[in-house]
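[09:14] KT: can someone run the structure on this one? pasting the chain below
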Amino acid sequence: MKQLSAAALRELILEIQTQLSHLSQLEADIQQTQADLAHDPDQAWSYYSALSLHLHNFYTNCEYIFQIVVSQLEQGLVIGSGWHQQLLERMGAAWENQPAVLSLESLRLMRDFLTYRHFVRDSDGLELDLPTLNSLLESYPQIWGQVKTDVLYFVDWLRVLAETVDNSEKAVDKSAEL
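[09:31] RB: done, structure tokens below
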């Protein structure tokens, strides 16, 4: 793990919290779109298209958190073919003194969202895989709740680390004054 100042760790925490806020807004958007679909089934294709994009964005925003963690705390981003899968797998593993960002259960569930993200990204926008979409929509509340819990746990770990680093920095400053 890279050595970061307490200020850099607090900036990392703020970036992660900003992404969590975006994900909470996305949760509200998904709920609203599902309600709209229930009230206006004649527009089902439009609502399902929106929901498909929302699930794509869910994974993409989670992945952005993963990229932030790797780029700030570890020795750089994962690159090369299959980097999305490698990045996700890395989030389920402890790294040096750093805990895993995702629990094994979250990691397992997020693999399906990664696969769907690839489907949405690679489709021409006219294709919908309704069975998969409905399955993911059904599991979405559970996985979002679990991922949020996992990431908040990781943020708590970052806070403790920032306080520890801050105390060390203050101790060094005091000893320099002597």
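[09:33] KT: thanks! The helical segments are 6-39, 44-73, 83-91, 104-122, 130-177.
[09:34] RB: yep, looked fine to me
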